[in-house]
Amino acid sequence: MSDNVVIRWGDFARDIILVRSRKGQSLRGLSKSLGVDKSTMCRAEQGQPINAENLILICKRLRLDPFNYLSVPTNPITEGE
């Protein structure tokens, strides 16, 4: 049985908003400086999924660790196992 990795989009969104706020940039300005489409940044800030390439690019350019947003859900041990 393999475990699925889950991306915690809400945590990612929180950190993007925090960085953007500290930089004093608009969503459009940050998108342009990162080289990411504004609609992608909007989805990311709303905690909606974006593709892995953009996730890594945003993390790299904002100096965020993408591993901070990954988790492996635990499965409760069922009786008899």
Can you put this structure into words, describing what you see?
- The protein has a two-stranded antiparallel sheet.
- The two termini are 14 Å apart.
- The protein has one domain: lambda repressor-like DNA-binding domains (434 Repressor (Amino-terminal Domain), Orthogonal Bundle).
- It has four helices and two strands; from the N terminus they run βααααβ.
- The model has no long low-confidence stretch (mean pLDDT 90).
- The chain has 81 residues and is mainly alpha-helical.
- Helix 2 crosses helix 3.
Describe the structure using short key phrases.
81 residues, mainly alpha, 434 Repressor (Amino-terminal Domain), two-stranded antiparallel sheet, elongated
SSE blueprint:
Elements: E1 6-7, H1 9-23, H2 27-34, H3 38-45, H4 52-62, E2 70-71
Antiparallel strand pairs: 1-2
Helix pairs in contact: 2-3
Amount of beta strand: under 5%
Radius of gyration (CA) equals 15 Å
Number of helices: 4
Q: CATH superfamily membership, which one?
A: lambda repressor-like DNA-binding domains
Order the strands across the largest sheet as they lie in space: 1-2
Total DSSP E strands: 2
Summarize the biggest pleated sheet: 2 strands, antiparallel
| Poorly predicted regions | none
Averaged pLDDT, please? Answer: 90
What is the CATH topology classification name?
434 Repressor (Amino-terminal Domain)
CATH class, please? Mainly Alpha
Please, how many domains? 1
Mind telling me which CATH architecture this is? Orthogonal Bundle
Order of helices and strands: EHHHHE
Give helix % range.
40-55%
Secondary structural class? mainly alpha
What coarse outline follows from CA principal-axis ratios? elongated
Q: Distance N terminus to C terminus? A: 14 Å
